[in-house]
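Give me structure tokens for this 368-residue protein.
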Amino acid sequence: MLDQKTIVIKLGTSTLTCGSDKLNRAHMLEIVRAVFLLRQKGYQVVLVSSGAIAAGREFLGEPNLPALMSVKQMLAAVGQGKLIEIYESLFSIYDLKIGQILLTRADVENRERFLNARDALTALLEHDIVPIINENDAVSTQEIRVGDNDYMAALAGILCEADLIVLLTDQKGLYTDNPRTNPQATLISEVSEITDEIEKIAGGAGTSLGTGGMSTKIKAAKAATQAGIELVIASGDNPEILLDLVEGHGEGTYFRAKNGVRYAKKTWLSVAARSQGTIVVDEGAVEALVKKGSSLLPKGIVGVRNDFLRGAIVAIEDPNGVVIAQGLSRYSSEELNLILGHRSNEIEDILGFSHGPVAVHRDDLVLL
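Here you go.
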């Protein structure tokens, strides 16, 4: 996207508050100084910052409020402005300008809105403005939430085609066990592949293990590395560690990307997009898709689930119920139910029209 290397830095609430109930302005200034030094070295920097709800609670005098979604939305609405106000005052010390981008899940799972968000982020960077991204918590409900700012950082990295994503947290990285309860736990310095064992250590499904919110970071690492972007988890205690992390020798856990950078559309399909329906295919279609890199033809389809329109994102499932791919359907679910199992040259006779010989083109499909 840009000639300069781009770094996405995610700041959790615990990093901004240093574990207290309030935003720690002195520590935030250290973070801003580190961003300034990175820019002096030629890096473009994007911040993904939590802290809006904490800022709102602090501004309202830390009231004792019920744990309702509407209350959290209220605190976020009050606090987001205060948080950006603090950032603006701190960045102005180094004569840097900031710009705010608030996103919801809908802004990244819809292709057009994804591109609009990418254009806004690109414009900020091209005009030498530091973007500060957060989930739009004031309007986000469970149905449209990205879910956490770790995953938001991965999506931001994909949006700006970042070279590195840094998740600053209250731990030095991923440990072999929970370091808070097991003093023998050791830091894992590098992960070349995110295996079931890595997910289990982080506190994945079906395990009692957990390293303090580390599972969301592994999810983010999986998305980032799948998109060809390296990610590192490190402690935010000393923000100057960022200068070492970007050079690859700071203390932390490095997740290596091994597939290289993907085409932006394929990355969006595999990471950001959410399927609206499912196409079930036979073994012949599985082999054609996986081994031959073919498009999906109607003849290989044996079933369609959920209602969706032409151009919808669909999951492609093998006969055993395993999702093997995701792509854009060239036909609606109603149309697919009529032409499934038929040859491509029969489509027009069945429907009275044709959108082409394939159900999902290989250019609009990504293997999972």
